[in-house]
């Protein structure tokens, strides 16, 4: 993989997505939980309920949004396509071809992997509830971590299978291909 693609995946899709999701999810936590002084670990409006929802929704929405944006970056020449296929890189083959199905698969994987890790960490720290502002920070931080893991994978998939950018037409090519050129006098 070229260094420019690695840098794009790490900085723009990793760090950029982490910062964006920290701010976005902290705002969501504030909006959804602002009336609660304390957020319990379990319950209808709880730390783990919100974490499980974030585990599923963040990869799904990231897949739907980032795939389109990254493919646009490839078409614009901002990042080079890799031209990989399922045959040349079988590891990518475990993800479905459809963007929405890929988002669902990544969401389910995050629910299975990240939610239990979050619960384990909170349990080891003895957390049974969090004051409102600590919960806002936790949700932002958790979403940032999840985005830093998921978004580069989504972007890699989009870059890997993206077609090469179209070359702009030169004036000579445009003139030769135009079927609507005005005809001269006959």
Compact description:
The protein is mainly alpha-helical and 186 residues long. Helices cover 67% and strands 3% of the residues. It has 5 helices and 2 strands.
Q: Report, as a whole number of angstroms, the end-to-end distance.
A: 57 Å
- Total strand segments: 2
Biggest sheet, spatial arrangement of strands: 1-2
- Average pLDDT metric: 87
Total domain modules: 1
Indicate the proportion of strand residues: under 5%
**What Rg is obtained from the alpha carbons, in whole angstroms?**
22 Å
Helix content: 55-70%
**What global shape is seen?**
elongated
* Major β-sheet profile: 2 strands, antiparallel
Give the helix/strand class: mainly alpha
Number of helices: 5
Q: Give the ordered list of helices and strands.
A: HEHHEHH
Low-confidence stretches: 172-186
Could you characterize what this model shows?
There is one protein chain. Residues 172-186 have low confidence and may be disordered. α1 (3-33) runs antiparallel to α4 (132-161), α2 (47-76) crosses α3 and α2 (47-76) packs parallel to α4 (132-161). The radius of gyration is 22 Å and the shape is elongated. The chain is built from five helices and two strands. It has helices at residues 3-33, 47-76, 99-124, 132-161, 171-177, and strands at residues 38-40, 129-131. The protein is mostly helical. It has a two-stranded antiparallel sheet. It has one domain (3-163).
């Amino acid at each position: 993989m070229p260094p420019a693609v690695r840098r794009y995946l790490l900085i723009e899709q990793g760090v950029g997505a982490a910062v964006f999701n920290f701010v976005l999810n902290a705002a969501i936590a504030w909006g959804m939980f602002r009336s609660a002084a304390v957020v319990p670990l379990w319950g209808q409006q709880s730390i783990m309920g919100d974490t499980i929802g974030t585990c599923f929704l963040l990869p799904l929405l990231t897949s739907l949004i980032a795939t389109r944006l990254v493919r646009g970056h490839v078409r614009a020449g901002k990042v080079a396509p890799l031209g990989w296929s399922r045959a040349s890189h079988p590891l990518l083959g475990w993800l479905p071809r459809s963007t929405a199905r890929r988002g669902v698969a990544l969401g389910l994987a995050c629910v299975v992997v990240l939610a239990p890790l979050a619960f384990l960490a909170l349990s080891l720290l003895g957390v049974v509830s969090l004051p409102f502002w600590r919960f806002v920070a936790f949700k932002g931080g958790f979403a940032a971590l999840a985005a830093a893991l998921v978004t580069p994978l989504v972007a890699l998939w989009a870059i890997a299978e993206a077609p090469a950018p179209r070359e702009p037409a030169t004036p000579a090519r445009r003139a030769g291909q135009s079927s609507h050129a005005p005809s001269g006098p006959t």
